[in-house]
Amino acid sequence: MKGCVQSRGFTLLETLLASALLGALLLALNFFVFSMAEIWGQGSERRLFEQHVRAVTREVEELIRTAALPPTAADPVLFTREIRLDNGRRETPLCFELPEGSPRLPWTAVPLPDVVCSLVVQAPQGLVLYWQSRLEEKFDEAAPRPWVMTPFVKALTYEYQEPDAGTWRNHATLQRDRGGRWRMPTRLRLKFEHGAMQAETTVTLPSAPGPLPHF
Asked: What is d(CA 175, CA 149) in angstroms, rounded to the nearest whole number?
């Protein structure tokens, strides 16, 4: 007589224990997946912020470099001019001129050459490029057009290299010499902020032939 093999199923206790272990494993896996997604999302936001900082800095550099190309290279590349901002306040910011204009400027009519540009940090807009063609009517009276380059620039400062002391000094405003004439800085420093993220970049400026007359 052949012996019979008895099969035994899982007991209720074993089933409950297996279910509890499986639930704990799935819960841990969910925590891991969501944590990795959060870390990856934060890293992605940081990378996008850094790309934006580089793009804006490069845009400012290219605009000023274009202003320094011939035939305007013989003239002072950088100068100052009092302008009226869109909020009615008047400022005398750092200016440069684009002889051929720029395709980036949002013209609503036929684009004109000889565009004077001014860089201003204005809350809450951020870094604003004010621009206006010398060929427009009432050039000296009308307010220039604002173009917000980025809302993340919170400060624009000016770095001067002192020839006597051989040191760099950073100023929140443009400086004058003892004769009251404007001194052009050697570099611009842009401070970016977005949430808890911060970054600073510098833009080297073309050298001016000498102090500019008092306006």
From this structure: 25
What global pTM score does this model have? 0.72
* Residue 122 and residue 89 in contact, taking contact as beta carbons nearer than 8 Å: no
Query: Looking at the 3D structure of the chain, how many domains does it have?
Result: 1
- Write 168-176 long-range contacts (CB < 8 A, 24+): 174/80, 174/92, 174/93, 174/94, 176/214
Segments forming the whole domain that contains residue 139: 59-204
Nearest to 115 by CA among 82, 138, 145, 87: 145
Query: Where do runs of H (alpha helix) occur along the chain?
Result: 12-67
Q: Give the span between the Cα atoms of 89 and 82, in whole angstroms.
A: 10
Most distant pair of Cα atoms in the chain: their distance: 123
Residue 5 in domain: no
> For residue range 51-85, what is the model confidence (pLDDT) as tens digits?
999 999 999 999 999 988 876 544 688 999 999 88
| 200 found inside a domain | yes
Per-residue model confidence (pLDDT) at position 211? 44
Task: State the Cα–Cα distance between residues 99 and 116, nearest whole angstrom.
Answer: 9
Does residue 2 lie in a domain region?
Answer: no
